[in-house]
TrEMBL record:
It comes from Streptomyces adustus. Residues 1-29 form the signal peptide. The keyword Signal applies. This is Carboxypeptidase regulatory-like domain-containing protein. Keywords: Signal.
């Protein structure tokens, strides 16, 4: 039979929508007649055939189907050739044989009635038949059905041909344009739609993700038809060995408040035993103080910066990627040391070459072991550092120190030698400036002098800044005398230095005692200078 190829409907229709009437078709209320239910269809090699489930206590003797176009009132075809395919005549499934007698692709109303051995005819069971060509699947395959680290994609391929409801599968390919065609669904996910080729074949790849046990369902859809193909075998998965290799496994003695970089490579093992990088893997780096997710790059490398806290911390790097055995490694920040910082306030030096210096520390916690801090001096601020004193740490910082220094224009800093759990520390270098002064000579010309005779006390006053020593001109030096047996110094006279720093004084000797020349700085830029103490005996 050659069918008229009516326009295919734009909407997708189901083959049969069984809307059964189950009221019996008997003549009176005290008799029981056949009941038709479960209207359906079967695609056979020769075309569509109808099915129906019929319950009839008296046994079915005949089945009749009338097929009417949806828009018509007169049946298009009547089918009476039904045979029992399962069950019994009292309760079984019946199927039509041969052609349905339709010559136009269209939607039809189907009504099926049954008559039993007592002559009772059932009320009709009703349904809707979409009588038009439809796609059918052939040679559908899913490969592989076991997912692993090496094989995380499934290849789906097969062929779609046309099924003619009047003639069966005629083998004609069913091609589709892009955006329509075959797709698969699983666990609430749907793949894109893939077109079939001119010969009806299709082939595409899906990435199911981290599935443990699922089934793929293949379907077909275009503007005129919908069909479902065979399901896959159960899709399972296996886990492969994994490992994380750290560039280093930890540190000891890192300063508190600093940071550490945890880095390494994540790898998975292939079936042949080869270890390969795991790209774009999510790794969890965590400890009691917190954690974060990091992602490996294309070479499996990762890097994450963590803080160094007051206590030993064990960081765990874990990988929980699908298809890989969970694995983890540890990075230990052991015995961290608290960072100590020292600061010095701007110092001053007075006329007596006394250094006045103070400062303060910072460190984690409330207590610093061995709370003694040393004061160091250097002539140039870079080399030759020596300890010149020490101080202790108080509640407000270092106890202020006053130290006599050999260089009034030197450089100073604080130094903490460290202690278990605490770093050593130096303060920034600080500087103060006064000219250093010195008296050359300054001794009496004689040490035994007749009373009421004079002696000459002469010498040179010098100064030194950042360079060499130079004369200190136009300065006043004082001549002091302390009588023997006394502790009191008396100012006897003074002298003025020349342009070369030279001075001379001529005191009269009246009694035995000690003489000394003193320069007392009259400004804020020099320090005092003292000549030698020399005893002169009056005779």
């Amino acid at each position: 039979m050659i069918l008229k190829n009516a326009a295919r409907a734009a909407a997708i229709s189901t083959a049969i929508l069984a809307g059964m009437v189950t009221a019996p078709g008997q003549a009176s209320a005290d008799t029981t007649g056949p009941v038709v239910s479960g209207i359906g269809r079967v695609q056979t090699d020769t075309g569509l055939e109808l099915t129906a489930h019929i319950d009839a206590p008296a046994g079915v003797t005949s089945v009749t189907a009338t097929i009417t176009a949806q828009t018509a009132s007169v049946p298009k075809s009547t089918v009476t050739d039904f045979h029992l395919i399962s069950g019994t005549a009292t309760s079984g499934t019946w199927q039509s044989s041969g052609s349905l007698g339709l010559d136009v692709y269209a939607s039809y109303r189907v009504a099926i009635t049954a008559q039993d051995s007592e002559g009772t005819v059932s009320l009709p069971g009703r349904g809707l038949l979409a009588y038009r060509p439809s796609p059918v699947f052939h040679d559908t395959a899913y490969e592989p059905t076991t997912l692993s680290f090496e094989h995380q994609d499934i290849n789906v391929h097969g062929r779609v041909t046309e099924y003619d409801p009047a003639a069966g599968d005629i083998g004609t390919p069913w091609p589709t344009p892009a955006g329509l065609g075959v797709f698969v669904t699983w666990d609430g996910h749907t793949s894109p739609r893939y077109a079939t080729a001119a010969d009806g074949t299709f082939a595409f790849t899906v990435h199911p993700g981290a599935v443990q046990n699922t089934t793929l369902h293949v379907s077909f859809v275009d503007s005129t038809a919908y069909a479902e193909g065979p399901d896959s075998e159960p899709i399972t998965s296996v886990d492969s060995p994994a490992r994380i290799t750290l560039d280093r496994t930890g540190s000891t003695g890192a300063p508190v408040g600093s940071t550490q970089v945890i880095s390494g490579t994540a790898e998975g093992q292939q079936e042949d035993g080869t270890w390969v990088p795991v790209a774009n893997a999510k790794l969890l780096v965590q400890a009691d103080v917190g954690g974060a997710w990091v992602t490996t790059d294309a070479t499996g490398r990762f890097s994450h910066t963590v803080p160094v806290t007051n206590d030993t911390t064990i960081w765990t790097v874990s990988e929980m990627r699908p298809f890989l055995t969970p694995t983890s490694v540890s990075y230990t920040v052991a015995n961290p040391v608290a960072k100590v910082s020292l600061y010095a306030n701007k110092p001053t030096v007075d006329a007596y070459s006394r250094l006045h210096i103070s400062g303060y520390p910072t460190f984690p916690g409330d207590w610093l072991p061995s709370g003694r801090v040393y004061i160091q001096q250097s002539n140039d601020g870079h080399t030759g550092w020596t300890n010149i004193g020490s101080t202790t740490i108080g509640s407000g910082g270092f106890a202020a120190s006053v130290l006599t220094v050999t260089n009034p224009h030197g450089y100073w800093r604080y130094y903490y030698p460290g202690a278990p759990g605490f770093t050593a520390a130096y303060s920034p270098v600080v500087h103060a400036f006064r000219y250093q002064t010195a008296i050359s000579g300054g001794k009496p010309s004689h040490t035994r002098v007749t009373k009421r005779h004079t002696v000459t006390i002469s010498g040179t006053l010098k100064q030194n800044g950042y360079g060499s020593w130079t004369p200190l001109p136009k300065a006043t030096v004082q001549i002091f005398f302390r009588p023997s047996g006394s502790s009191t110094w008396h100012l006897i006279t003074s002298a003025r230095t020349s342009s070369t720093g030279y001075f001379a004084a001529h005191p009269t000797i009246t009694r035995t005692g000690t003489w000394r020349v003193v320069y007392k700085a009259p400004d804020q830029v020099h320090v005092n200078a003292y000549g030698p103490m020399v005893k002169v005996t009056a005779i």
